[in-house]
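During the reporting period the student researcher (J.K.) took over the structure-prediction task from the postdoctoral fellow and processed the backlog of single-chain submissions. One of the processed entries is reproduced below for the supervisory committee.
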Amino acid sequence: MPKEILLQEERHQFLIDKGVSRAVEWMLEHVTDASILGFSVGGTIAWKFAQKKQNIEKLVLVSSTRIRQESNRPDCSIQLIFGEEDEFKPSMKWAKEMDLSLTLIKDNGHECYKNWQLIAPYLLQWF
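J.K. obtained the following structure tokens:
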């Protein structure tokens, strides 16, 4: 990440342009067996890592909207959680094509993960 102070939109663009691939490369060097809980872009990183790495038991991804652009599913157990009102969540068509289901949190958007009391019951189902 650049050392200068970036606006949220600039940080997001940096992560998309360079940070995701750098994070995946780091994980490939340092992570072996794993179950991964990822939030937002962290979930996208986990997805891309699991596509390249064996021995990933489980992915639980919350508000990881960029996975909607993926066409190859990692070979592991995958749980997807999104706010029902998140305009960038994957479509049901995409989920069906990937043989996945989406857990939708009613009356919430992308940042549903910021409310731990709200998402904890969903996470406890899988860990």
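The committee noted the following: Strands lie at 34-39, 56-62, 77-83, 102-105.
J.K. will present the remaining backlog at the next meeting.
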